[in-house]
Design a protein that fits this description.
Structural class: alpha+beta
Number of strands: 11
Oligomer: single chain
């Protein structure tokens, strides 16, 4: 809120993820007390001036705080780790390609009307239906990454813009319950794509040193 940043009941792992813009599987070397569901902290901070900091400025502030209060020292390396390759299935892509025109950029559509991207499209009598999305494969990759435990690398070779219906209620419920979401593989296959488990280069953040902070 403005120039104030606050977090409640977070672990050092949570703060490192936010400060270095990584996922939990990209962090190695955290002590046991810093892992999820371990020691919890409340954080209150303010930036100089009244303006809200940008995302990059906020991450830099968090890194400075972590070095000062947790004596955190890290370095980055690239390692071959488990990843998923997103590729086109053997029967071909089942997404509709959107042909560019001279009109305004296409958004999500319900019938002939454009609707905001955040508005779910639920046809009458079909509560399981999701929303119609138009976008590149990069956006689809980010969407499915939420439900996977390893990075996803685009190997489709697709560069166009595509339209597809995303219905994720069951997947989200599995995620909320802390379960793996095996149905994401079936979901991907419905779009004529596949996920191949393999190994690939991953940017890893190694924690060289961390200490519990002293009380205020």
């Amino acid at each position: 809120a403005g120039n104030r940043f606050a977090e409640r009941m977070v672990t050092l792992s949570d703060l490192v993820i936010a400060a270095y813009d990584v996922d939990d599987y990209q962090i190695s070397g955290l002590p046991n007390w810093a892992l999820p569901n371990q020691d919890l902290y409340d954080l209150d901070a303010r930036s100089e001036g009244e303006a809200a900091p940008t995302s990059d400025q906020l991450r830099l502030m968090l890194r400075t705080m972590l070095a000062d209060r947790f004596q955190l020292k890290v370095h980055r390396e690239t390692r071959d780790l488990p990843v998923y390759y997103l590729a086109v299935g053997k029967n071909g892509l089942k997404m509709k390609e959107v042909v560019p025109d001279d009109g305004p950029p296409a958004g999500e559509k319900q019938g002939s009307k454009d609707v905001p991207a955040s508005v779910p499209v639920r046809p009458a009598g079909d509560p399981s239906a999701g929303r119609v999305i138009q976008g590149g494969i990069g956006g689809f990759l980010q969407l499915i990454s939420i439900f996977l435990d390893h990075p996803v690398i685009d190997k489709t070779g697709l560069t166009g813009k595509y339209e597809y219906v995303w219905a994720s209620q069951d997947l989200l419920e599995e995620l909320r319950q802390g379960k793996p979401a095996p149905s994401i593989f079936a979901t991907v296959q419905q779009f004529g794509l596949r996920l191949d488990a393999t190994k690939g280069p991953v940017d890893v953040l190694f924690v060289d040193h961390a200490e519990k902070p002293s009380a205020n």
